[in-house]
Specification:
With 372 residues, this protein is an alpha/beta fold. The protein has 19 helices and 11 strands. It is globular, with a radius of gyration of 21 Å. The two termini are 31 Å apart.
Length: 372
């Protein structure tokens, strides 16, 4: 309970907000990279409490949301096979593919199971030697180490009926892609603390220097985020572009050496498509050559799938920070959590889901909130 209470203190929050208001002198646009931070910001109304000069732009930090439609359709094709037990975390089951989702595959007779760890899927493979067990491995640097460890264990134990459908992505190349976009408005970043707890902060100083943007590593509680914003605004006002660690209780500079070693052994860097954004060079991982036999995409030969996104869904623009969810004509009408057009509405870290859940439906509501 200590951190729950300590990092939600309203008096400290008020002082941080006063400091931010006293520091800012001009408009600034700051992107929070992580979807977990987005939900915390919207849930606690942090964006509404900030001075009017500050805009928070929601970045592509939701791993479910950036998993490309093509990969979702590959998962659906594999899951529908009669010899397969398809395992996933629960947040992937309602993400729409081109026509259906994993729940529909399950209702049609596919053996689709929610697990709480990739090691659960490995245990299923040991218990069901006559089945092919596939785990859907998605996420940023945070979830990649346990998935890597599971494949490492499968090889060590000689479990050949287990495989991993890989859709892992990396944050630093995404920052580069955002900054190099002609439509970029981002002037600073709040970096995701849990990603840096694995990878450390070493990849960020070159980005800060190259693009002239402050990057402040922060956590997910209200005071974490406000402190990150305070440090970011101070850098912007002083004309600095440095990396600061505002989350030292969880993020050492070197990250987690054991996790990084496991990633280096099992995965190799590759180009990766991001839903709504496109291919970002060097932004993903795939299984390295010595673990390629556990690659589900190769095992089930689903490499030739082509897809077309819904013309009604503007989640790509949301993920790039070009629009807010309520700017999409389908938001809250055609697209709801029960009838999602894209992953940003169904994921627990999606920006559209946050706006819908916390009733950020239109600009009028925001104006009322500001007056109150």
């Amino acid at each position: 309970m200590r951190y729950v209470e300590e990092f939600n203190d309203p008096d400290l929050a008020a002082r941080l907000l006063e400091d931010i208001a006293a520091t800012v002198t001009r408009p600034w646009a700051i992107m929070e990279v992580c979807g977990g931070q987005t939900h915390s910001i919207i849930r606690h109304g942090i964006d509404q409490l900030l001075p009017a000069q500050l805009e928070l732009i929601h970045g592509p930090g939701c791993p479910v949301c950036v998993t490309p439609l093509e990969t979702i359709d590959k998962a659906l094709a594999i899951a529908a096979r009669p010899e397969v037990i398809f395992c996933s975390f629960g947040d992937m089951l309602r993400v729409p593919g081109s026509e259906i989702d994993l729940f529909r595959v399950k209702s049609a007779g596919g053996d689709v199971r929610v697990v709480y760890s990739p090691l659960d899927a490995l245990e299923l493979a040991k218990a069901n030697p006559d089945k092919q067990v596939v785990f859907f491995g998605i996420g940023f640097e945070t979830t990649a180490p346990p998935n890597a460890m599971t494949v490492h264990q499968a090889k060590r134990l000689g479990i050949t009926n287990f495989s991993l459908l890989v859709s892992h992505v990396r944050v630093p190349p995404a920052i580069s892609a955002i900054m190099e976009s002609p439509s970029c408005r981002v002037q600073a970043f709040l970096a995701a603390g849990h990603v840096c707890s694995v990878m450390g902060t070493g990849e960020y100083p070159p980005l800060a220097q190259r693009y002239g943007v402050p990057i402040v590593v922060t956590g997910f509680e209200p005071l974490d985020i406000l402190e990150g914003i305070r440090r970011t605004v101070r850098q912007l006002e002083e004309g600095r572009a440095e990396v600061e660690n505002a989350y030292p209780r969880a993020v050492p500079a070197e990250g987690n050496p054991a996790a990084r070693a496991m990633l280096a052994d099992v995965f190799e860097v590759t180009d990766r498509a991001w839903r709504g954004i496109g291919v970002i060079p060097g932004s993903g991982w795939r299984l390295s050559e010595r673990y390629r036999a556990w690659d589900a995409e190769a095992r089930f030969d689903v490499g030739g799938i082509t897809t077309v996104e819904s013309p009604l869904c503007r989640s790509g623009e949301v993920l790039q920070g070009l629009i807010k969810p309520r700017d999409c004509e389908a938001f809250g009408t055609t697209c709801t959590p029960r009838t999602p057009l894209g992953a940003t509405m169904v994921s627990s870290e999606g920006a559209c889901a946050a706006y819908y859940l916390y009733r950020r439906l239109d600009g009028a509501e925001l104006q009322v909130a500001h007056r109150d």
